[in-house]
Amino acid sequence: MALPTNGRVVIDTTAGEIDIELWSKETPKTCRNFIALALEGYYDGVIFHRIVPGFLVQTGDKTGTGGGGESFYGEPFEDEIHPRLRYAHRGLVAMANNGTKNSNDSQFFITLDRADELHGKHTLFGRVMGDTVYNVMKIGEMEIGENERPVYPPKIKSITIVDNPFPDIIPRITAAEKRAQQRAREAGQREREEAERRRGAKKDVKLLSFGGDQDGETEPVAFKKKNIARPDLIENPSATMIPMPESLLAPPKKSKEQPRERVPETESSSKPSKSNKSEDADKDIKKIRETHAKEKASGSDARRAEIEQMEGEIRRLTRKREGGEDSDEEAARKKNKQTKSYLDEELAKYSKGRGLQKKGKGKKDEGDVLAALNSFRGLLQSNANSEMEDAEEEGDRADDSGGGTVPGGEDPGIEVDDDRGFIGHALHFPKDDGEESRKAERDYEVIDPRQRGARAREEERERKRTAMKGKNGRGRR
After folding, report:
1. 106-110, 122-126, 455-459 — which is least confidently predicted?
2. Which of 118, 149, 319, 383 is labelled catalytic?
3. Weakest-pLDDT range from 146-155, 384-393, 401-410
4. Alpha-carbon dihedral 117, 119, 121, 124, rounded to 10 degrees
5. Catalytic residue among 8, 32, 90, 122, which?
6. What residues form DSSP beta bridges with 124?
7. Looking at 33, 58, 104, 135, which residue is catalytic?
8. Chain centroid to CA 163: how far?
9. DSSP-based three-state secondary structure for 105
């Protein structure tokens, strides 16, 4: 029988929780070391650095290599071997050492099976409770690489002390304080890296940069664009802010004779260009109108066809509801369906007497069934009468022949089976004289539990009656 435990912790890992009960009375120094390190948060973030399938999983090394670890006492402490604590099954928690006696620090392991070879070599101080042992087995089934090291090592998140058997333990630093210091160190490291990054070399603004990489001190790059002057697109050139060249704003000063001579030429050249442009515009407008009219006509035709189809559907539905005749197309379709194929016509010729013709759409005709039954009954009666006549004729022949057979006579011939002999057959059973039933009663005993109970109650009542009679007799004396 296992020894009673005193103390309980819950290890929260990436593979699930592990509930451990401690034997603090049998191994007080080992349990005190384990609980003190857990209170200080020493095991937080430590990985399972060694997995031996079917044997054990090991953790407790802060470095994750298997060669580190420190005890709460500042130096390795001695083993605590108890004769009643043995490695008899899986889920047992024990201290790991460096291969020599009295060399325990912070590393511990959990067994995955019975391990008799560990008796007297390692301090056994706890056991895994309940279904959490399956989380330990899950860790033992993980993929491992070289030197029994897992490829993706699971990690201890935190350890919760549920039942502390040593309330006098004063940790050097609590787990919460340790986590706060760790967060402060990480924040300081991030600030130092940010400051070094800002004091770095000058940035090349010509290169492509992102919003997160730019500092607030850098000035945006301004691109100068050339002004574009298009006075022909502006109605009021004087209202624009763009400086216009004088050559575009003011026409060149020339003599009065030159424009007089050139005016008719410009007019004659501009007139045909304007007329060509107007003709092209008219042609484009005509094309657009024609295409629009075609689209409109096609849309109206499609709409008209849809309306006619819907009206036909409405008429068909109303005709069906009123029970009238269907349309011509549906009537022709029904006629095509009703026409029988050549195969059906040929089958109809040979369907008599084979049950292929059905009357009344699958309903059985009782008259036909009764007629067939009466004909079969008459056949039986006629067969019985013919058998009686045949028996009488055979008796007469036997009397005439003197009851013997003539040697060397002719063979009466082979019997011909006319397939009607079964009608005259009769089924006979030997009469039961009661022997079988008596044999069954004699050989087989039927036990009824109700009769047995009734018999027991009757015997109990009889016993009570005799007891009462005895008491009454003694009283009278």
Report:
1. 455-459
2. 118
3. 401-410
4. 120
5. 122
6. 94
7. 58
8. 41
9. coil
Distances (CA, A) of 169 to 36, 40, 452: 7, 11, 73
Marked catalytic residue, from 8, 32, 50, 90: 50
55 is catalytic: yes
The active-site residue, picked from 8, 56, 97, 107, is 97
Q: Pick the closest to residue 244 from 226, 233, 231, 234 (CA basis).
A: 231
Is 109 tagged catalytic? Answer: yes
Give the tokens for residue 105. Answer: 């620090």
Query: Cα separation of 15 and 36, whole Å?
Result: 24
Is 338 among the residues known to form the active site? no
- 3-state DSSP of 141-178: CCCECHHHCECCCCEEEEEEEEECCCCCCCCCCCHHHH
Q: State yes or no: is 97 an active-site residue.
A: yes
Give CA torsion, residues 246, 248, 253, 258, to 10 deg. Answer: 170
In the residue annotation, 108 being an active-site residue is answered as no
DSSP 239: G
Band of the pLDDT at 24, cuts 50, 70, 90? very high
Active-site choice (34, 48, 55, 125)? 55
Q: How far apart are the first and last CA of the chain?
A: 65
DSSP annotation of 412: -
Q: What tokens were used for 251? A: 């026409």
Between strands 16-22 and 8-13, the pairing is antiparallel
Residue pair 281/275 in contact by the 8 Å Cβ criterion: no
Residues 221, 205 contacting (CB under 8 angstroms): yes
- Residue entry with tokens 């511990």: 108
Phi, psi angle pair for 470, to nearest 5°: -60, -40
pLDDT tens readout for residues 337-358: 666 677 888 888 777 655 544 5
C-alpha 419/C-alpha 63 separation (Å) is 101
